[in-house]
Amino acid sequence: MPNLDLQLKDLDVFHGFIRRHIGPDPTEEQAMLAELGMDDIEQLLDRVVPESIRRRKPLAVKSSLSERQVLLRLYEVSIRNQLYKSFIGMGYYNTQTPTVIERNLLRNPAWYTSYTPYQAEISQGRLEALLNFQTMVSDLTGMELANASVLDEATAAAEAMAMCHRLSKSKSDVFYIANSCHPQTIEVVTNRAKHMHIKCVIGDPFAAADNPELFGVLLQYPCSTGEVHDYRELVAGIHAKKGLVAVAADLLSLTLLTPPGEFDADIVVGSSQRFGVPLGYGGPHAGFMATRDAYKRSLPGRLIGVSKDTCGEAALRLTLQTREQHIRREKATSNICTAQALLAIMASMYAVYHGPAEIKRIAQRVHRLTVLLAEGLSALGMEVNTKHYFDTITVNTGNATEFIMAAARSKKMNLRQVDAHTVGISLDEVSTRGDVTRLYDVFTHDHGRDVSIDELDAKIKTALPQDLIRSSAYLTHPVFNSHHSETDLMRYMRKLADKDLALDRSMIPLGSCTMKLNSATQLIPVTWPGFGRIHPFVPLDQAQGYQQLIVELEQMLCACTGYDAISLQPNSGAQGEYAGLLAIKSYHESRDEGHRDICVVPSSAHGTNPASAQMAGMKVVVVGSAKNGNIDLDDLRAKCEKHSTNLAAIMITYPSTHGVFEDDVREVCDIVHQHGGQVYIDGANMNAMVGVCAPGKFGGDVSHLNLHKTFAIPHGGGGPGVGPIGVKEHLKPFLPQSEVQRRHYQGCRCALRQCRNPADQLGLHIAAGPRRLASSDRDRNFECELHRASSERPFPDSIYRLQRTGGARMHNRYPRGQGIRQRRRYRQTLDRLRFPCADHVLPGGRHADD
């Protein structure tokens, strides 16, 4: 007989999220416990996790809410952000995301839960979409090939500098940066250069050739202030000095302007954000990097190639640099091993949907509105500084700058204050005639109607330089000319998704990235205007909702990790590693111990670890593994003793790469601390520790977190990635910040990306509560131990390698029986997709035109 007299306090228990999204129900738990011969989950954890690091107290996070309450609360947070219309530019623009892409891609679990394309045989659809991205970028930049995206424009520029340094025949260590580049790009590149012992010179781009020696140059096209320059003679002069030229370009402008590849640029970088990806307070967004075919072996990140299967049919694969860190390790030139896949695919589908003609029309409309704005302001007596431009102009505002900025804010508009006497304006895809009229009013104290837009429109000419107007074709492949209706694009995206293995149809029995199905609730807020339409450089009083999210998220992550402070700035695990090591390096320097430059790395570590260490200017010393795969303590003691004076840090992964909660982790940390080093704990496996143990409590000084593995960031086949770092109190002053943050927060800290961009972290801000977070982790360990215990029973149909440790302390997740059965139908594909070699690629790793 049911108890119908339960009190409200017994009924207001919000465990629905756990029941619907996390692991087994109580009956299944008991069945698994019986299989293991255990009484409860606590007994399991006692067996899996060393007692010396067990966390016995509940997490200090807020109590759980229902999913409906979470959405309501997040909506209330979102409306704290004020929706002004931003004309700031600086590489970030309003754009219109086609609803067919938002509905069928961004919010579709077939796309946002799929695994990394390293497993090409189950990622053919995703690889085709990324090949579309590469082709789009190659066509628009005029380069021979492009990679499958990088982290953002500023990071891409820093990678371009490193690539130029490696490839240039010049013996110089000087890299010249045009002062017309975006400020955040200059900041990131100069910070990266400092740790690579590269000297950066910032100045007039046309003075670059006057430098007696340099190995490379970075140019902006169009400039950050909007001016469009002809760089052809400058590029030739740099090449004459044996230097290489990298160009940061705007993709939309390249539909109208001569592409950098046609004036002999060596590398082209930029952002694809304005191709249908919302602003989201700065991202993350998919950057791009294109280069010559001759340089493809030095191109960082992923590169999709067109190969052939054993039946002679076309098949796609990752090629060349995809695992450079594992091959070259500390000699790798980049630590990036991923891409912004989901966002790159959105941008590629934007190009597929619109096609070359419609994208050109969008660009022409943006440019036309900008010309109308400039000519109208000139007619109203304002001095427009920019002569040749695409979508951005600067206006000489003299002593009226503050008045004009205030007038813009009163009309809910954001402009860019370039300096005390100059204001910048950038128009974009969503700009209108009404915006232009209101901007006239802002600059002339409501005299905008003295100018007729229609009369101006009838007589004005383009502001693009005539000798730089593009004449070459682009986006000629049939894929960009065949899916222009909603029905056609919807079917095309469905066709590609059906070629992939994602969590909408099966478990994914692969290692490296622990996958999970994000709930629909976690993905909804990302598309709300209050979060999606906020420019990263708006005044803080317009982003109070985001500031609240940032503060609360930092507090939640501190509670989960045991660290004292969190920085959300790094935008990938690789950037998190780099940020953590720079914090350690800066800490040693602050103590007059800058000579500490030895980083100890276990031989079993992920390849990005030694690559990150060398990028941070450290020397890598490898420590061996014992027979059971754990860190060899005797070897560690010997190496730490030998390098005691110069020991900077150790980089370890916990639980270890082979899936074990090593008993002696505290001893490892103590040994390093005794010799003055810091302990970096790779947080890639934080999913196994939440609520059970905390790296900040058992010896870690700094960790990065892969939020797509532990929390709720969509993986999407490799990105968007977010890799925040947590640190102990003594490292807090050395957390990364960008210049835009330093306007509001004190401290001299380095920038590792363009800005702190938490939009895609909304899903993590789910008010999970201690029970929900702990339950997620316990269920992972529960299922893994069950698989370990049953591994003696063969799975003849299994096509994955079941890892065995011979002991209990495992955390890696493996599929249940139904996951194995569901993958039987992929056997034929697996057998067929046996590729002959990595270099059997169509020229440029791009689509060949039919």
- Strand portion: 5-15%
Describe the main β-sheet briefly: 7 strands, mixed
Multimerization state: single chain
> Helix amount, in percent?
25-40%
Structural class by SSE content? alpha/beta
Report strand order across the widest sheet. Answer: 2-8-7-6-5-3-4
Number of helices: 29
Shape: globular
User: Mean pLDDT score, rounded?
Assistant: 84
Q: Low-confidence parts, pLDDT < 50 over ≥5 residues?
A: 738-772, 787-844
Q: What is the number of E strands?
A: 22
Amino-to-carboxy terminus distance: 71 Å
Radius of gyration: 27 Å
Provide an overview of this structure.
36% of the residues lie in helices and 11% in strands. The model is unreliable at 738-772 and 787-844 (pLDDT under 50). The chain is an alpha/beta fold and 850 residues long. It has a 7-stranded mixed β-sheet, sandwiched between helices. It has a 7-stranded mixed β-sheet with strand order 16-22-21-20-19-17-18, with helices on both faces. It is globular. Helix 3 packs parallel to helix 27 (769-789) and helix 6 runs parallel beside helix 17.
